[in-house]
Design brief:
Rossmann fold; Single alpha-helices involved in coiled-coils or other helix-helix interfaces; alpha/beta; globular; binds guanosine-5'-diphosphate
Amino acid sequence: MPKRFTPDEYAAGVLSGNRVLLSRAITLAESTLPSDQALAHAVMEQVLPHAGKSIRIGITGVPGVGKSTFIEAFGNYLLEQHGKKLAVLAIDPTSQRTGGSILGDKTRMETLSANPGAYIRPSPAGKTLGGVARSTRESILLCEAAGFDVIFVETVGVGQSETAVHEMVDFFLLLMLAGAGDELQGIKKGIMEMADAIAITKADGANLHAATSAQAEYQGALHLFPLGASKWSPKVTVCSAYEKTGLAPIWDAVTEYVTLTQQNGYFLQRRQEQNLHWLRHSIRQQLEERFYQHPAVKVQWETVSGQVTQGQKSPFAAAAELFDLLS
Ligand code: GDP
């Protein structure tokens, strides 16, 4: 078992910005060992009053859209031009993507990871979306307590991880490619509806023209969505990570969004709603875990699930029967 510290040691290390302790605290938050969970809760309790002060940005897009190249360029821009401290976290449940974690490849984001103002944390391997989502939430708080004032949460633009990320960030940035056939294909409408900004990537060289026409097209499409509770109208921009162009307008959109929603109260309201969402989410998860770990359920599971598989018992009746075992 890896070395463990006391809650005070973890908390003091995180709050002083010690990266080794921050990484250890995140590892602890990712652990599923029951003894680690109690320790992790004690650490979180101590750091929580110091968390919450960052801007949390979700970044999504299909594989190949240029996410890691963009994050490196945009991240360096924020560090160099705005003096930000940036943490990059990833949600990449291996159940959805074979071949390891999204940030596992060491060649990704080389200059960013070498920058002392940046902290890059790969997605934990071998976990379900629920597990990754929970530990990413806690990692955000730990990074905030360690003094990072911008947090990127990266996810691949497939499956359900966008919804989970959307529930843990303030601003949701969707990266899209121009000229990949029908402009609105390949990405679900639901994901576009979540976006606070869409950035058309690779707007350089021969791609530039296609990117600007895609920009107009997406901006038109987004106008069809009704204005949400934030009162923010999503922006569409073009950028090139290669040429480092179009990065300032994206940051402008983020800061305008934050100013608007802090003024109209939506920023805080949404964070409160997100906290409630994760409370409910944790309760569901813990109920389920406790249910399956209950000794009586374990004994009966094979028989009852077999009866359901064979059509001898309805799933509803079987669930009720198993629940009765708990009382
Ligand atoms: P990810 O899978 O979304 O993380 O995408 P990557 O960042 O790995 O990029 C996918 C491919 O697009 C790579 O071959 C990059 O070199 C290329 N690419 C990324 N950004 C740009 C850009 O700004 N302009 C151009 N022309 N190509 C880019």
